[in-house]
Specification:
Strand content: 15-25%
Helix content: 25-40%
Number of helices: 9
CATH topology: Rossmann fold
CATH architecture: 3-Layer(aba) Sandwich
Distance between the termini: 34 Å
Shape: globular
Order of helices and strands: HHHEHEHEHEHEHEHE
Protein backbone atom coordinates (compact mmCIF):
# COMPACT_ATOMS: atom_id res chain seq x y z
CA UNK A 1 0.00 0.00 0.00
CA UNK A 2 1.09 3.58 -0.58
CA UNK A 3 2.95 4.96 2.45
CA UNK A 4 3.42 8.62 3.37
CA UNK A 5 6.44 8.29 5.66
CA UNK A 6 8.51 11.25 6.81
CA UNK A 7 8.84 13.83 4.06
CA UNK A 8 10.96 16.93 3.74
CA UNK A 9 9.34 20.23 2.85
CA UNK A 10 10.83 20.04 -0.64
CA UNK A 11 9.42 16.54 -1.16
CA UNK A 12 5.97 17.68 -0.04
CA UNK A 13 6.19 20.63 -2.40
CA UNK A 14 7.25 18.34 -5.26
CA UNK A 15 4.26 16.05 -4.67
CA UNK A 16 1.93 19.03 -4.83
CA UNK A 17 3.51 20.87 -7.75
CA UNK A 18 5.24 18.27 -9.93
CA UNK A 19 2.70 15.44 -9.80
CA UNK A 20 0.71 16.85 -12.75
CA UNK A 21 3.90 16.68 -14.85
CA UNK A 22 5.28 13.31 -13.77
CA UNK A 23 2.49 11.52 -11.93
CA UNK A 24 -0.03 8.99 -13.22
CA UNK A 25 -3.06 8.16 -11.10
CA UNK A 26 -3.82 4.50 -10.53
CA UNK A 27 -7.05 3.15 -11.99
CA UNK A 28 -8.33 -0.18 -13.23
CA UNK A 29 -8.33 1.12 -16.82
CA UNK A 30 -5.59 0.30 -19.32
CA UNK A 31 -3.06 3.06 -19.93
CA UNK A 32 -2.48 4.32 -23.45
CA UNK A 33 1.29 4.67 -23.19
CA UNK A 34 1.61 6.33 -26.59
CA UNK A 35 -0.82 9.03 -25.48
CA UNK A 36 0.82 9.28 -22.04
CA UNK A 37 4.31 9.88 -23.41
CA UNK A 38 3.25 11.57 -26.63
CA UNK A 39 5.09 9.13 -28.89
CA UNK A 40 5.72 5.46 -29.63
CA UNK A 41 8.99 4.22 -28.13
CA UNK A 42 10.46 1.28 -26.18
CA UNK A 43 9.10 1.27 -22.61
CA UNK A 44 11.00 0.37 -19.44
CA UNK A 45 9.21 -0.36 -16.16
CA UNK A 46 11.00 -0.07 -12.84
CA UNK A 47 9.31 -1.66 -9.84
CA UNK A 48 10.08 -0.07 -6.46
CA UNK A 49 12.45 2.70 -7.54
CA UNK A 50 13.28 3.88 -4.00
CA UNK A 51 14.45 7.49 -4.10
CA UNK A 52 14.51 7.37 -7.91
CA UNK A 53 18.05 8.63 -8.49
CA UNK A 54 19.06 5.60 -10.56
CA UNK A 55 15.75 5.66 -12.48
CA UNK A 56 16.24 9.32 -13.40
CA UNK A 57 19.77 8.57 -14.54
CA UNK A 58 18.53 5.71 -16.73
CA UNK A 59 15.90 7.97 -18.28
CA UNK A 60 18.42 10.75 -18.83
CA UNK A 61 20.96 8.40 -20.42
CA UNK A 62 18.38 6.85 -22.77
CA UNK A 63 16.15 9.61 -24.19
CA UNK A 64 14.98 7.29 -27.00
CA UNK A 65 13.08 5.13 -24.47
CA UNK A 66 10.24 5.92 -22.09
CA UNK A 67 10.42 5.02 -18.41
CA UNK A 68 7.60 4.20 -16.01
CA UNK A 69 8.41 3.92 -12.30
CA UNK A 70 6.26 2.39 -9.56
CA UNK A 71 6.81 3.16 -5.87
CA UNK A 72 4.56 3.18 -2.78
CA UNK A 73 6.75 5.44 -0.61
CA UNK A 74 5.73 9.08 -1.00
CA UNK A 75 9.10 10.58 0.11
CA UNK A 76 10.81 8.53 -2.61
CA UNK A 77 8.29 9.71 -5.19
CA UNK A 78 8.87 13.31 -4.16
CA UNK A 79 12.64 12.91 -4.28
CA UNK A 80 12.41 11.29 -7.72
CA UNK A 81 10.34 14.14 -9.14
CA UNK A 82 12.82 16.71 -7.82
CA UNK A 83 15.66 14.79 -9.47
CA UNK A 84 13.68 14.45 -12.71
CA UNK A 85 13.02 18.19 -12.85
CA UNK A 86 16.68 18.93 -12.13
CA UNK A 87 17.76 16.59 -14.95
CA UNK A 88 15.08 18.00 -17.27
CA UNK A 89 13.91 14.54 -18.30
CA UNK A 90 10.70 14.34 -20.30
CA UNK A 91 10.54 10.54 -20.78
CA UNK A 92 9.60 9.57 -17.22
CA UNK A 93 6.25 8.97 -15.50
CA UNK A 94 5.56 7.71 -11.95
CA UNK A 95 2.75 5.76 -10.33
CA UNK A 96 2.29 5.60 -6.55
CA UNK A 97 0.56 2.25 -6.09
CA UNK A 98 1.13 -1.48 -5.67
CA UNK A 99 3.14 -2.83 -8.61
CA UNK A 100 1.09 -6.00 -9.07
CA UNK A 101 -2.15 -4.01 -9.32
CA UNK A 102 -0.59 -1.64 -11.84
CA UNK A 103 0.79 -4.45 -13.98
CA UNK A 104 -2.46 -6.42 -13.90
CA UNK A 105 -4.86 -3.55 -14.44
CA UNK A 106 -3.10 -0.64 -16.12
CA UNK A 107 -0.48 -2.21 -18.39
CA UNK A 108 -1.46 -3.93 -21.61
CA UNK A 109 -0.11 -7.21 -22.92
CA UNK A 110 3.35 -6.97 -24.51
CA UNK A 111 3.72 -3.23 -23.88
CA UNK A 112 7.18 -3.27 -22.26
CA UNK A 113 10.69 -3.80 -23.61
CA UNK A 114 12.27 -4.22 -20.18
CA UNK A 115 11.34 -4.61 -16.51
CA UNK A 116 13.75 -3.60 -13.74
CA UNK A 117 13.47 -5.02 -10.23
CA UNK A 118 16.40 -3.64 -8.25
CA UNK A 119 16.94 -4.62 -4.61
CA UNK A 120 13.39 -5.67 -3.72
CA UNK A 121 12.50 -6.34 -0.09
CA UNK A 122 14.39 -9.58 0.72
CA UNK A 123 12.03 -10.73 3.49
CA UNK A 124 15.01 -12.53 5.09
CA UNK A 125 13.09 -14.57 7.68
CA UNK A 126 12.13 -17.99 6.35
CA UNK A 127 8.51 -17.66 7.44
CA UNK A 128 8.25 -14.52 5.27
CA UNK A 129 9.77 -15.96 2.08
CA UNK A 130 6.30 -16.35 0.56
CA UNK A 131 6.06 -12.53 0.57
CA UNK A 132 9.00 -12.15 -1.80
CA UNK A 133 7.91 -10.67 -5.10
CA UNK A 134 9.97 -13.09 -7.21
CA UNK A 135 7.55 -16.00 -7.44
CA UNK A 136 6.16 -18.03 -10.39
CA UNK A 137 2.99 -15.90 -10.58
CA UNK A 138 5.05 -12.72 -10.77
CA UNK A 139 7.18 -14.15 -13.57
CA UNK A 140 4.03 -15.07 -15.48
CA UNK A 141 2.79 -11.49 -15.10
CA UNK A 142 6.13 -10.07 -16.25
CA UNK A 143 6.23 -12.34 -19.28
CA UNK A 144 2.73 -11.25 -20.24
CA UNK A 145 3.65 -7.57 -20.13
CA UNK A 146 6.97 -7.93 -21.97
CA UNK A 147 7.09 -7.78 -25.75
CA UNK A 148 8.86 -10.56 -27.71
CA UNK A 149 12.56 -10.37 -26.91
CA UNK A 150 11.91 -8.35 -23.75
CA UNK A 151 14.10 -8.66 -20.66
CA UNK A 152 13.73 -8.82 -16.90
CA UNK A 153 16.60 -7.32 -14.87
CA UNK A 154 16.95 -8.16 -11.18
CA UNK A 155 19.52 -7.19 -8.53
CA UNK A 156 19.86 -8.07 -4.84
CA UNK A 157 22.46 -7.84 -2.08
CA UNK A 158 21.05 -10.72 -0.01
CA UNK A 159 22.73 -14.09 -0.58
CA UNK A 160 19.65 -16.07 0.47
CA UNK A 161 17.45 -14.09 -1.90
CA UNK A 162 19.97 -14.66 -4.69
CA UNK A 163 19.61 -18.42 -4.11
CA UNK A 164 15.82 -18.02 -4.17
CA UNK A 165 15.94 -16.06 -7.44
CA UNK A 166 18.23 -18.63 -9.04
CA UNK A 167 15.90 -21.46 -7.99
CA UNK A 168 12.63 -19.82 -9.06
CA UNK A 169 13.97 -18.69 -12.44
CA UNK A 170 15.62 -22.04 -13.12
CA UNK A 171 12.19 -23.66 -12.84
CA UNK A 172 10.46 -21.09 -15.02
CA UNK A 173 9.59 -21.99 -18.63
CA UNK A 174 9.14 -18.28 -19.38
CA UNK A 175 12.68 -16.87 -19.03
CA UNK A 176 16.26 -17.77 -19.90
CA UNK A 177 19.18 -16.41 -17.89
CA UNK A 178 21.18 -14.37 -20.42
CA UNK A 179 23.68 -12.98 -17.90
CA UNK A 180 24.43 -13.34 -14.20
CA UNK A 181 27.01 -11.41 -12.18
CA UNK A 182 28.19 -11.60 -8.60
CA UNK A 183 30.35 -8.65 -7.66
CA UNK A 184 31.38 -6.14 -5.01
CA UNK A 185 29.45 -3.20 -6.40
CA UNK A 186 31.93 -2.64 -9.21
CA UNK A 187 30.12 -4.45 -12.05
CA UNK A 188 26.44 -3.40 -12.13
CA UNK A 189 24.62 -4.87 -15.11
CA UNK A 190 23.19 -2.21 -17.44
CA UNK A 191 22.20 0.04 -14.55
CA UNK A 192 23.61 2.78 -12.31
CA UNK A 193 24.33 2.11 -8.61
CA UNK A 194 21.37 2.47 -6.27
CA UNK A 195 20.79 3.72 -2.74
CA UNK A 196 19.91 0.24 -1.46
CA UNK A 197 22.98 -1.22 -3.17
CA UNK A 198 25.27 1.24 -1.38
CA UNK A 199 23.55 0.42 1.91
CA UNK A 200 24.15 -3.29 1.34
CA UNK A 201 27.80 -2.72 0.46
CA UNK A 202 28.33 -0.79 3.70
CA UNK A 203 27.06 -3.91 5.50
CA UNK A 204 29.63 -6.04 3.68
CA UNK A 205 27.12 -7.68 1.33
CA UNK A 206 27.90 -8.97 -2.15
CA UNK A 207 25.79 -7.90 -5.15
CA UNK A 208 24.02 -10.20 -7.61
CA UNK A 209 22.75 -8.99 -10.99
CA UNK A 210 20.75 -10.93 -13.60
CA UNK A 211 19.39 -10.30 -17.06
CA UNK A 212 16.66 -12.75 -18.01
CA UNK A 213 15.27 -12.88 -21.54
CA UNK A 214 11.66 -13.73 -22.21
CA UNK A 215 11.20 -17.04 -24.00
CA UNK A 216 8.86 -16.53 -26.94
CA UNK A 217 6.53 -19.49 -26.88
Amino acid sequence: MRRAGRMTASQQKALAELWPEYGVEYSAARLDLDALFGRHAPRVLEIGFGNGDSLVQLASDDPASDFLGIEVHDPGIGHCMIAARSAAVSNLKLIGHDAIDVMEQQLAHACLARINLYFPDPWPKKRHHKRRIVQPAFLELCAGRLEPGGSLHIATDWANYAEHIDAVLAESPLFDCAERREHAGDRPLQRPPTKFERRGLRKGHRIWDWRFEKIDL
